[in-house]
Amino acid sequence: MALSAYDLTGRAAFVTGAASGIGRASALLLAEAGALVHCADRDETGLRRTYDLIAGAGGSARTHPLDVTDRDRVRAAVADAGHLDILVAAAGIMHTSSVLETADEDLDRVLAANFKGVLYACQEVARSMTARSAPGSLITMASGAVDSASVGLLCYSVAKAAVVQLTKTLATELGPHAIRVNAVAPGWIRTPMTDRHDAAGQHRAEATMARISPLGRVGEPEDVAHTVLHLASDASAFMTGQILRPNGGVAMPW
Question: Which residues span the membrane (predicted)?
């Protein structure tokens, strides 16, 4: 396939969680491929840094300070962005607690950011696309946590499993409108979200994950961003309702 299939010139993308990690890496790569990238995040300092990186590389970007758990603000930001061809719903948070110690407020907080935030973004962008009968690509961010049980990650895993089901349902409903919907389920990626231990603990955690990967390493945000670019582009024109797993081989489901 010609490399032109990955050319996003003339297209516009809306990326949540764009202030750091996978969201930032995805925004940078989509801009490099030619898209106008609308960067959204509640971290305004990080958001400005992402904008500066895109602009410094010659790309085009806009910023939208945004808490994805606020449906009205999501609606307003999408409306302000205007024409959109691509959504990358990468915003999310992490919480650790055992099942028996999980409090209602923690579950509600994680579900609000990691599931409802994805739902709101998908709803608003999809409504915009269907209103103008335009094709598009919605990309949600699941996790390798949906493929195995992880101690302490009930809230996170449940929210990401809900994202997978949302993705499949939306793909079925939006297919007749030429809107594709796919999920990315990364393995251990070196981001601010996974950097929640002290230095020694972080080193041990990464070493453990690297040992169980056939590739012998943990992932970088750019590893996931390339998967995002594939799903955003015409190279994946016949792909919808799928879960792509840039996880270094840690999980190999059917």
Answer: none
